[in-house]
Design goal:
3-stranded antiparallel sheet
Length: 109
């Protein structure tokens, strides 16, 4: 997962991943859509490929890149553990606030 987070920490690589969410693209399409130079995109794609975040499929003389799913699922699983903790804490806060509101209503009577 460290490779995933490290790869996504670079803004242009994150933008590439977000673009590929729409569907597969060639290096040239990615470069054009993001306003980057093709060699720069190729270097970023190499890092994303090494991290498993993208997959490449050669078609004739083109390489088509699409999102890889395993690292994103692992990241989602990791984030889910935090989500559960936050939800529990928010539920506890909600219960506490309801108790306070109940005390305020009883004090007014």
């Amino acid at each position: 997962m460290n490779a995933t987070m490290s790869a996504l920490a670079e803004p242009n690589r994150l933008r590439i991943v977000e673009l590929l969410r729409e569907g597969p693209h060639t290096v040239g399409e990615i470069a054009e859509r993001l306003g980057l130079h093709q060699p720069q995109v190729s270097k970023h794609l190499r890092v994303l490929l090494d991290a498993g975040l993208v997959e490449v499929h050669p078609v004739a003389n083109k390489r088509i890149y699409k999102l890889g799913t395993k690292p994103l699922r692992e990241l989602d699983d990791w984030l889910s553990s935090f989500r559960r903790t936050w939800e529990e804490r928010f539920d506890q806060l909600d219960d506490y606030l309801k108790k306070l509101q109940g005390k305020d209503e009883n004090a007014e009577e």
